[in-house]
Amino acid sequence: MKETEIKKIENVKVTDDFWRRRMDVIRDEVIPYQWEAINDRIPDAPASHAIQNFRIAAGETSGEFFGFVFQDSDVAKWLEAVAYSLESDPNPELEKTADQVIELIERAQQKNGYLNTYFTVKEPEGKWSNLRDRHEMYCAGHMIEAAVAYYQVTGKRKLLDIMCRFADHINAVFGKEENKIPGYDGHQEIELALVKLYQETGLKRYLKLSKYFIDERGQKPHFFDYEKEARNDDKKFWWNDEYGDYSYHQAHLPVREQKEAIGHAVRAMYMYTAMADLARETGDESLKEACETLWENVTQRQMYITGGVGSQDFGEAFSFDYDLPNATCYTETCASIGLVFWAKRMLGIEKNRKYADVMERALYNGTISGMDLDGKKFFYVNPLEVWPKASEKRKDKEHVKPIRQKWYSCACCPPNLARLISSIGHYIYSTDRNEVFVHLYMGNESELDIGGQKVQIVQETKYPWDEHVKLTLTPETSSEFTMAVRIPGWCEGAILKVNGNIVEIPSCLKNGYAYLTRMWEKGDEIELFLPMPIERIRANPKVRENAGKVALQRGPVVYCLEEVDNGTNLSSIRLPQDAKLQGTFEENLLEGIYIITAQAEQVDETEWNEELYKPIEHKTKPFPLKAIPYYSWCNRKPGEMIVWIAEN
Amino acid sequence: MKETEIKKIENVKVTDDFWRRRMDVIRDEVIPYQWEAINDRIPDAPASHAIQNFRIAAGETSGEFFGFVFQDSDVAKWLEAVAYSLESDPNPELEKTADQVIELIERAQQKNGYLNTYFTVKEPEGKWSNLRDRHEMYCAGHMIEAAVAYYQVTGKRKLLDIMCRFADHINAVFGKEENKIPGYDGHQEIELALVKLYQETGLKRYLKLSKYFIDERGQKPHFFDYEKEARNDDKKFWWNDEYGDYSYHQAHLPVREQKEAIGHAVRAMYMYTAMADLARETGDESLKEACETLWENVTQRQMYITGGVGSQDFGEAFSFDYDLPNATCYTETCASIGLVFWAKRMLGIEKNRKYADVMERALYNGTISGMDLDGKKFFYVNPLEVWPKASEKRKDKEHVKPIRQKWYSCACCPPNLARLISSIGHYIYSTDRNEVFVHLYMGNESELDIGGQKVQIVQETKYPWDEHVKLTLTPETSSEFTMAVRIPGWCEGAILKVNGNIVEIPSCLKNGYAYLTRMWEKGDEIELFLPMPIERIRANPKVRENAGKVALQRGPVVYCLEEVDNGTNLSSIRLPQDAKLQGTFEENLLEGIYIITAQAEQVDETEWNEELYKPIEHKTKPFPLKAIPYYSWCNRKPGEMIVWIAEN
User: Fold this and answer.
1) Active site residue A316
2) Mean of the per-residue pLDDT values for chain A?
3) Percentage of chain A with pLDDT > 70?
C-alpha cells in the first residue's frame, strides 16, 4: 500500500466543542433517522425503498424497484457516514446493522460483479446504455467510498471486496480498447472513488481507470452522442448552451481545456476533486494546471462568501463570472461539500492556505447551514437572502425554501453532510514525509505518523469563537520535524509562539503556512493567537448584486441578519460606515454563538403612506442591528434573512 | 346611439412633435410591415399564416390552419390600427386593402355568425369546448374593436355588421339560461369590446352580454371545471396557487370580491377595463368599488415606475404586493397598454388626475419602450435593469431580452402598440356635457362638441420636454362651458393663465383638475406652465428591490442609464445625494431628447485585483453620469441598462 498524505490520518479524536456537537447530532439523530428513512419507516417522509430495492435485487422478496435511478447511493452514503461515526464513536449494534446491510449488498451483486438495483430489478437489458442520465457509476462511486471508509475504520474487507469486484467489472467493460464501451458517467463520482480504492488497495488498475474516465471526458466524437445513437435517442438534451448538450456534465471539452466552471455544480466539484487527485498521483502537470485554472475561476469569480457555489436553479448550476445573486442562487449543500473535498485535494498538490481558507469558509458557513442545529431538517439550497413571501409566490424563487425541510425524496444532501461531519477530523492535518500541516483549528487529540515515528498532538481551542489555539506535541522521542501551521488568509496580526517564545511569522511563512522546523520534545507547545476583529467584507465591484453592501465576518464565520432579531424588511436597514460593531458571546443562544450588534439605521417610513413612488428625502432612524452566524439561521422563528447589508 | 363621454372624440388632429413622430412610424413602418408579416412575406420572420387562415376558412384555398389559436387577433389588431391611422392620415390604397380583408373575413364567417379560423378549419367539432385556453372570444373581442374603429373612421358598416352577427351568435350560445353555455372566455377581451359595440350601435344586448361575462366570472360551481368535465379533461392546470387553477385568468373569485391583482397581467388589465366600462354604463356601485380597490392595489403596490405591470415571467403575471424586481420582471408592453385602457375608463367613472397620471406614466415610459425609434423591433418584456450576459446565461432571465426583437410568432405587442399610438389623439380630451377635460398635453388641433356646439381647440406644446402648454379656443359663438385642465401629480408650482391673467389654481382645483368655467370667446387662450425640475424619485421602502436607490424623472419621463453612455457595470455608479442634476436638450440624440447629467461617483476598482471578497474601505472616483429617457434605451449600442441608481 502506497504511503501518501491523502491517506487517512488515523487516530484523530475530535474533542472540539463546535464540531463535536455536530458529530453528536449526526450520530444520534441523522444516522438513525436516515436508517429509518431508507427502510421506509418514517411515516410522513416520502418513500425511499432504498433497502427494499436491494432485497428485491437479491431475490429475497418480490416487488418493483422504486425511487430514482440513483437510489442505491443513499445506502452508500449512509454506510460511509456510519463508518466515520464508528471511527469516533464505536457502536457494536450500529456496526452489526451495517454488516448486515453489506451482506445484503453482496447478495444483490450479480455474478460478474455488477451492482445496481435499478438495472438489476427494473431494466436488466438497459445496463450501461445511458451513462449520461442513469448514474450507474455514480452509485458505484459512492459505494466504493463507503467500502474504503468501512474497511479503514473496521478492518472488515467484505464491502471492499464487493466493490473491487464491481470496479473490476467496470474496468472490463469500459475503455478505449475494442469491444469496450468508450464512455464515462454522466454524474462524476466514480473517478474520485477509484483513486481512494487505488490508495487503499495499491492496485494501479483503479487509478488507471479513473484516469481513463477523466482523460476521455469531452473528447470527440462525443460519447454521449455515441450512446444516444446506439439507443436510438434523438431527443435534445434539456440543457443546452454554446457548447451544446454537454456542459451540464462538464463533458463539453476535454478537462484540460476547461477554463471556467460550468454546468451542474456538484458534478463539477466531484470532477475537479478527482482531477486534483489524479494530478497528484500521476504528477500530470497539465491536469494540475487545469485544476488551478478552475480553482481560480470558481473561488475568484463564482463562489459566494459562504463557500456556496451554483448561482442558478436551472441545472443546479454555475452561471457565469461575477453572477452571484443572493436570492435566486442554488448553492446546494452538496456543492459546498464538494468544494471542501476539492480544496482538500488541492492541498494535496500544493500546501497553500488559499485552499485551506476556502475549505474553512465552506465548512463554517455554506455546508453546515444545510442542517438545523438538531439535525432534523435540511436545506438543499442555501440562499444568502430570503423573503419568505417571494419563495411562496414567485416561480423563480420556488427553489429557495424559507425553512429547512425534512428528508427529501432526492435525499442527496443530508447523507452527504453526515459523511462530511462524521469525518471532519480527517480535514485538520495532513502529513508529508516529516512535515505536519495544520489546516484547521479545532480541538482534537491525535496520533500522527511523522517520518516513521508516532507523535501525539493535542489541539485545544474554542475556535471559531476564540482567537487562541494551543497545540501540545508529544513525540515518542525527541526528533526533528516540521510543524507547518496555517495563518488564515482572513487574519491580520497573528501571533505565533513556541513554548512561550514569539516566532516571527514572516521569517517562516510560505504560502500562508508558518513552518516550524526544530527538534520537538515531549510537551512542546505551539500557541497561535488569531485576532478576530469583526470585519466588514466587500464583494468585488464586478459582483453587481452586492454593490453598496457589506457582509460581516469574524474569523471564518460569515454573519447574517434574521427577521426574528431585526424585524421585517431587512433591506431597509443601513449600516453606517462608521458604526461600531460589537461582539458578544451568547452562551444560551443557538447553542452558543458570538453575535454582532451595532447601532445602525433604518429607513424612516413615517412619511410614506400608500404612495409607491415619490420625490422625498432619504430619512433614517436609529436601529439596533443584531447579526448571527449564517450557519445558524432559521433555527428560531422563520422569516426574512440577508447576508449582504446595505451601507450608508 | 347613446351620447357618452367614452364616445370617440372626432376630429382630433395630433400635430405634436413627440407623438406625431411615433404615429408616422406606425403608419410608415409598422402597419406595412405587419401587413407583410400576416401575409407571410417577411423572409426571416416566423410564419404568421394569419391571412391565409382566413382564406382557408373561406374555402378559397386548401391547406391547414397554422399558428396559435388566437392567430386571427393579429388581423383584427392590424385592422384596428389601420382604422386609426386612416383617421389621421387618409390613404385610399390602404383603405382598399383593409376593405378587401374585411370582405375576406365576411367570406370566412359561418352562416350562423361564427367566426374563428382555427375552429372553422382545424377543429370544427371543438367550438366552445375549451373557453379557458382557446381564445375564441378573445379573437372575437379584438375583431369587434376593429369593427367599431373602422366604422367610426370610414363610416363603412361591413365589419361592424359581421361582428354584430357574431356577437348575436355568442349571445345566443352563452348565458345562464337553459341550453346555453354558462361560461366566459379564458382571456378577457370581449367584455370591453362588447361595451364598445353597445356604445356604437346602442344595442343594449351587447352591454348585457358583457355584464353577464363579468358577473359570471369566478362564480361557483366553476365554469372551468364544468367545461373540463364536459371534455373529459382531468389534467391539472399549469398555474396553481392558493386559489387553485383559476387565478391565472382572474376567475378565482367573483370580480367584486377581488382585492388584489393576480394572474396574467394583460388579462387582468383587459378585465378591469371592462369592469370600469360596465360600472360607468350601468351605475353599478359595487363594480365601481371593485375597480377602485384593484386600482389602488395595482398602482400603489404592484406597478413599476415605468407604468409596467407583471412582476414575474411565470404566467406573465402579477406576483404580490411590493414585489417589483427590476431584472426579472415581465412588464409586458401589452400590459402597460392595458393599463392605459383601464386608466382611460377610470377617468370615465371619475375625473381624478390619479388616473391620468398613471395613464401618462405608462404612455411616456412602459408602453413606447416596447418599440424602437424606427418601429422595426419590439420588446415584449420591458425590464428596468438589464445585464445582457445574465439574459444570455441565466434561465431565470432568459425572458429579458437585451435587444428588441423582430416580429414574434406570438405577435401580440407590436399590433397592440400600433393601435394605441394610432389612436393616441383619443386620450387627450374627454367631454362630459358642457365640460371639457384636458387629460394629456400634446400638440393637436381639434373640434369638440361641447354642450351642443362645436369648439375648436388648438393645443401647442413641446411636451414632454417643455414646461409650456397653450390652448387656444374657438367656439362657434361665445358660450359658457368648463375647461378642466389637469395639473399633473408630479408637478409642483404649476402656473395657469387665461388670456395672460394668472388663475389661482387652488381656488378651482378639484381632484387634480383646474376647472375654468366662463364665457369662452373666440381666441381665448389658456396657458399652463408645468415646472419640470429633475426629480430624484424614491420607491416605497417596502419595495425591497429599490432600497438605497433613486430613479430620475423629469415631468412624466422616467430616465435610465445605458452602458453606451456610462460604461459597463452600472451598479458601481453612485449618485451622491447632493449631486447637481443638469438637464440639456440634445436635438440630435435619439430624435431629440432631454438628457440628464451629473457629477456622480463610481466605485474605485484600482485596489481590487482578483479577490472576490475582502475587507476594504469603500472608495470612489468621480464619474460623469448621463441619463436618457427610459423609453429611448436600446436604440444605440446594446448593453447594460438600469433605471434605479444607487445613492451615496
Assistant:
1) yes
2) 95
3) 98
Residue B18 lies in a domain: no
Judge if B471 and B576 occupy the same domain. no
Question: Could you tell me if A257 and A190 lie in one domain?
Answer: yes
A271: number of Cβ within 10 Å: 30
**In the predicted model, what is the mean pLDDT of residues B404-419?**
84
- Residues of B annotated as part of the active site: 316, 412
Give the chain B residue nearest A536 (alpha carbons). B615
In a domain, A205, yes or no: yes
Lookup: cell for A521? 520534545
Same domain flag for B89 and B158? yes
| Alpha-carbon torsion (B486, B438, B196, B99), positive or negative | negative
Residue B409 has pLDDT above 90, yes or no: no
Are the C-beta atoms of B136 and B113 separated by less than 8 Å? no
CA B374 to CA B402: how far, in whole Å? 17
Between chains, do B320 and A543 touch, taking CB under 8 Å as contact? no
Please give the Cα distance from B258 to B76 (Å, whole number).
30
B518 lies in the same domain as B546: no
The answer to whether residues A241 and A389 belong to one domain is yes
Output the pLDDT for position A31.
Answer: 96
Question: Does B1 have pLDDT greater than 70?
Answer: no
Nearest to A537 among B390, B610, B614 (CB): B614
Mean pLDDT, rounded, for B361-390:
97
Instruction: Report the Cα B451 to chain-centroid distance in Å.
Output: 30
Set of chain B residues whose Cβ sits within 8 Å of the Cβ of A387:
544
B540 with A299: Cβ contact below 8 A:
no
B220 occurs within a structural domain: yes
CB-based contacts of A543-546 (< 8 A; 24+ apart in sequence): A543/A322, A543/A324, A543/B612, A544/A322, A544/B387, A544/B569, A544/B571, A544/B572, A545/A324, A545/A325, A545/A326, A545/A644, A545/B571, A546/A324, A546/A326, A546/A644
Domain with B555, as residue range(s), is: 534-647
Residues of chain B with pLDDT > 70: what percent? 98
Convert the pLDDT of each residue in B481-505 to its tens digit.
999 999 999 999 999 999 999 999 9
> Which of the residues B241, B396, B578, B608 would you substitute to probe the A interface, choosing the one with the greatest number of A C-beta atoms within 10 Å?
B396
Query: What is the per-residue pLDDT across B237-265, written as a single tens digit (0 to 9) for each?
Result: 999 999 989 999 999 999 999 999 999 99
Calculate mean pLDDT across residues B413-427: 94
* A634 noted as active-site residue: no
Are residues A265 and A378 both part of a single domain?
Answer: yes
SS3 A424: helix
Contact status, residue A266 vs residue A338, Cβ threshold 8 Å: yes
CA quadruple A26, A29, A32, A38: dihedral sign: negative
Q: Which of B241, B539, B615 sits opposite A535 (nearest CB)?
A: B615
Among residues A485, A506, A529, the one where a domain terminates is A529
pLDDT 10s digits, A57-114 = 999 999 999 999 999 999 999 999 999 999 999 999 999 999 999 999 999 999 999 9
Q: How far is CA B471 from the centre of its chain?
A: 26
Count up the domains in chain B and report the number.
Answer: 4
Domain boundary among B426, B447, B477: B426
Q: Indicate if B577 and B496 belong to the same structural domain.
A: no
| B319/A581 Cα distance (integer angstroms) | 37
Whether residues A393 and B569 touch (CB distance < 8 A) is answered with: no
Do A375 and A445 fall within a single domain?
no
Give the per-residue pLDDT at A554. Answer: 98
Q: Decide if B510 is inside a domain.
A: yes
Report the amino acid identity of residue A441: Y
Q: Are B159 and B144 in contact (CB under 8 A)?
A: no
Q: What pLDDT is recorded for position B6? A: 36
> Which CATH number characterizes residue B448's domain?
2.60.420
Give pLDDT, residue B47: 87
What is the C-alpha to C-alpha distance for residues B408 and B411, in angstroms, rounded to an integer?
A: 5
